[in-house]
Amino acid sequence: xxxxxxKTLGLDANIGAALHVMLENGLHQLPIVQNGALVGMVSxxxxxxRMQSGAGLPERSSRQTxxxxxxRPKAAPSHG
Length: 80
Fold this sequence. Notes:
- The chain is 25% helix and 21% strand.
- It is an alpha+beta fold.
- It has one domain (9-70): CBS-domain (Roll).
- A four-stranded mixed sheet has the order 1-2-3-4.
- The longest helix is centred in the N-terminal third of the chain and has 11 residues, at 15-25.
């Protein structure tokens, strides 16, 4: 069940922001949006893998390559 309003993050959000939103709202995954369009999803497992890899929780980042969320691309729609 989705909590309304839907919680989302932008591509510029860092992994700490993702963890904070998930914990504060009891969520296991978050949609990642850019210009109002879904571009990927990040899960608690993604956050934990990132932390275990030694990336830690950066304070603030404006670029994906500097600690931003590496969102998994959304699945392509099935045609069948």
